[in-house]
Amino acid sequence: MATRPNIAAQLLDRNRTQHPDKAAYLCGDDVLTHQALAADAARFANLLRARGVRPGDRVVLCLPDSFGAVKAFLGAMLLSACPTPVHAQLSPDDLKFVLQDCEAAALIAPEDSPAMEVARTVPGLRLALPCSMDGPWGLSGFSSECDAEAPQPEAPGFMLYSSGSTGRPKGVPHAQEDLLEPTRGWATEILGVGPRDVLFSASKLSFAYGLICSVSLPLAAGATAVLLSEKPGPVELFTAIVRHRPTLFFCVPTLYAMLLRAYDPGQGDDLSSLRLCYSAGEALPEGLCREWTRATGLELLDGIGSTEAFNLFLSNRPGAVRCGASGTPVPGFTVRIVDDAGADAPDGVPGELLIQGPGICRAYWKRPDKTAETMLPDGWLRTGDVYVREDGVYSHRGRKDDMLKVGAHFVSPVQVEEALRTHPAVLDCAVAALAVDGLVRPCAHVVPRPGFAADPQLAQDILRHARGLLPPQQCPVRVRFLDELPKTPTGKVQRFRLRQP
């Protein structure tokens, strides 16, 4: 069997040779060059090797986005260990679950973080290594040259955990080679990423979208990426954009809505460096898409990917944005929309989206039941997303688990939410099932805008508004007011938490 290349070594060596003094990463006022990144990633690999970490071992990274997080990820890959980044604010219970589930050999986390306390309670964890924002402790004592290990056959090259929008997260292992798949069809043919670009992702490294945009794309192109260590709010995001002048901005709809509400060019919110804005992680509401372009003058491209694909497989194109739609298939991917019997659904009829393409995960980590449900024997992946195709363009209708069967009709929560958001009092909303006398009916969970009283009169007004826009089976029968919707760290609404018996 031919030796598989070490992808981290390829990327680091090429950029160290071609762009040694160029910024690989920007974080606050600090700069990390490609040459310095390659040196410290090698030091970290040597540190891990000296501490007994072996190829194939899972190394969990519970770190804020920082130079240290990127060095740790690439250093673990140089050793052909399996870096497994998780959100820095993961709850102790969820972190313990991940450490036990992936049978982690090592944890890398800030010294004073709760993660270090969790590490003491996990049998089998051999190493808990403190890490600063600049890198794991003890790097200076190791060589900046490293003999990279070739990836083992069938061993995971890196692993991510799904965001848990429908329940407990699942481990999604990928081969090292999958790190480069998004840099082909999506990055080159749609985004046109090149070495002069500066990429900024509000999504964190612990999620596929963030890892793609902050590691895969910039390192493959020899470009520069901006890292934001703190929680991404409007002030933090606008400050980073003004300071670092990115050319491509990647974000999720929830944050785009927050940015739009706070956007004030007169107060210095300068977006003139951006040539492209991209939205993924959840469906982009049509109204938000249009309003962003109207307010900023920038196109907002929507697309959809998944942790399992580690790629975007549907996307709008620059100059041909269709608000309210996810666009058309990304080069390299084939897609189908199927009914419950597995037959292809005709145009205009909703069904589950299936995809086939390079880099798709072949099995969940230790979850043969979920693997059998999702990864089909012929290479197709069930996304769990309901889509409809019209004139060759694909539009999202919600998650399959979220679809409501009202009478003889399937109701998409997304369509109902789009209508509700046109009411002036609705800041955010989600629709989930409510059982009324044993029958399923839509219930609207609404976050009201400031200045609107969450009272029965407003609820009735919202219901009347919906009845004027929607057919009877789609109209909510009740409005519940919430201070905020339950969401994953990536901004996806957890509708399963809203369902009511």
From TrEMBL:
Entry-linked InterPro entries: AMP-bd_C (IPR025110), AMP-bd_C_sf (IPR045851), AMP-binding_CS (IPR020845), AMP-dep_synth/lig_dom (IPR000873), ANL_N_sf (IPR042099), Benz_CoA_lig (IPR011957)
MF (Gene Ontology): acid-thiol ligase activity; ATP binding; CoA-ligase activity
Superkingdom, natural source: Bacteria
Keywords (A to Z) from UniProt: Ligase
GO BP terms, alphabetized: secondary metabolite biosynthetic process
NCBIfam families, sorted: benz_CoA_lig (TIGR02262)
A Pfam entry, by short name: AMP-binding
Organism of origin: Humidesulfovibrio mexicanus
Annotated AMP-dependent synthetase/ligase domain residues: 13-365
Statement: the UniProt record of this protein carries the keyword Ligase: yes
Residues annotated as domain AMP-binding enzyme C-terminal: 415-492
Protein's recorded name: Benzoate-CoA ligase
Keyword Lipid biosynthesis recorded: no
